[in-house]
Amino acid sequence: MMNNILVLPMLLPIIVGVLLIFLRTYGRIQAWISLIAMALTAGISGYLLQKVQTDGIIRLDFGGWEPPFGILFVADSFAVLLVLTSSIITAICLSYALISTSKELQTMYFYPTVLFLIAGVNGSFLTGDLFNLFVCFEVMLLSSYVLLTLGNSKRQLREAIKYVSINIVSSWFFLVALAFLYGAIGTLNMAHLADRVAEVGQTPLLTTISIVFLIVFSLKAGLLLYFWLPGSYSSPPIVTSALFGALLTKVGIYALFRVFSLIFHHQPEITHTVIGIMAALTLIGGSLGAISFNDLRSIAAYNVVVAVGFILVGLAIATPAAIEGSIYYIIHDMVAKALLFLLIGTMITLSGTSKMAGMSGLMKNYPLLGWSFFIAMLSLAGIPPLSGFIGKVLISSAAIDNGSYVLLALSLLSSIFVLYSLLRVFKNCFWGETIVSKEEQLPLRRGVLIPCLVLVGLTILIGLGTEIMSPYVTDAAETLVNPSVYIDAVLGKIQ
Amino acid sequence: MNINDVILKTVSKAVVLIILTFGIYLFFSGHNQPGGGFIGGLVIASAFVLMFLSYDSETVSEALPIDFKKLSGLGVLLAMTSGIAPMFLGGAFLSQSFGYFDLPIFGKTELATVTIFEAGIALTVIGVVVNIILSISEDE
């Protein structure tokens, strides 16, 4: 019964978040408490990751109800890696908020909402029940609605209406898909579902249901159906954008990986081909978007889209190496996107505009900021020894082995587009004539760059420490490729 | 507002009592029959909303000095506590237990820890629903 620790990554943020509601007026205390809570959560996830390596997949049956009758949390390496990364990223984003955000935002339930958001995210990663996944999605989405509208600017409200309506529609689709699946299979426990689908074979009906799930998760992940993403990710305060860009799409991606590697993996010529096509189109659309805007935040938002396409290429190929590459890339992308958004946010605060035309020669005044941006750019483009490299190599070589040359070409081209889009920002904003003189420049607030530097450090560390990470990632990929490991771990007792 | 609402006020005085009774009945009938914290909470919240509708919100706030935002927070805490407590007693998260006790008036009664959990849910639902209605009505 020591598995109770499994619920803590979701429980701890919720409890602390609720307690913070009672401390509404104390902005800074809230920030510190939530920071400590996230650090604790990250520590617990690190411990869990280690535990999964030694004990294998662990599960917690809520209230002692055994699967498939009760709901449960399941921790395998894939889920825990993501929980760990997202907890760390949230802690870093919170520290950025602590340093830079206005007091107004802090007392309007910003911190409790962020904690509820991360509770939903962690819950989605850990749950072993499809309906529970829906619930955790809703927890996450409700918090994101609040975060998106917090700040109350006209643009935010306009984007929030789109975001909320698209997500309500997709949640409805999610429910419908769940109902279909429950009607067809008679269970919603993921392992049990996987077992039964394997038993009866993935009939055309089930494949159709799986396509509904594909649509739902694609909407959340921004796979092809990303039309809502650039607007809503570029309008809220920068910390919120960083959290959204780093975490929210990843939850959709996680769900896609889980569902299409565990449950619906028997008809890859249909489902995985569709995913491949969608990923290809996402890469094209995202790349074009990334180079066609002058607004920094839109460029960053389209970079999120490109990454989604790239990660899903790995799922479309679905060989162990490709999956492994995707996992590396998800982790890298969480770090790098948070970094990119925070840096861009700092640039916008310093220059007072989000248009590229309004910035020039920032390098002279803020060299540290400039070089951090440079590293973020290289990391996103996948240049060794930074964190983006290993994922790109693995996915590309898997694409070659698999003969998926179109996907290979598109994913490599997309890297060039990413590099170009950010190089353009770098050239226009950091190089060139300095518009503001040394005397007039806004002072960079003390400490604002610390969270960014931590993230820069992380992206370098992940790149250099691939060797250390590889056992965890290999284990995660192993479990995804062999669903029986997961199924046995969950249903072991009754079989 | 010069609408003559004597009838509304008089009727709601009686109806609120009935609704509250029904809500509490639903809450307790919870875990064996249709009902429970969520539904009971909704019904009780509807009684509050009716009060806010028929009287003005200042009068009601004076009679019921409750911060509904904090009430919902308290509810979540209560529900979570009932889930966490078994973790310290060697059970799984959210484990529940029940037993039969001889109480003075009720006789042999089933008491279950799930009631605490449900009470948390009920408080949360009341807090959230009333809060939503109040937020909408406050807006100009």
Automatic annotation (TrEMBL), chain B:
Ranges of residues in domain Na+/H+ antiporter MnhB subunit-related protein: 7-130
Recorded GO cellular component terms are: plasma membrane
Supply the Pfam families for this chain.
Answer: MnhB
Cell location: Cell membrane
NCBIfam families in UniProt: PRK12573.1
TM region positions: 7-28, 34-53, 74-94, 114-134
Native species of this protein?
Planococcus halocryophilus
On the tree of life, the source organism's domain of life is Bacteria
The membrane topology term of the UniProt record is: Multi-pass membrane protein
Task: List the taxonomic lineage.
Answer: Bacteria, Bacillati, Bacillota, Bacilli, Bacillales
Alphabetical UniProt keywords: Cell membrane, Membrane, Transmembrane, Transmembrane helix
What name appears for this protein in its UniProt entry?
A: Na(+)/H(+) antiporter subunit B
The record's comment on protein family reads: Belongs to the CPA3 antiporters (TC 2.A.63) subunit B family.
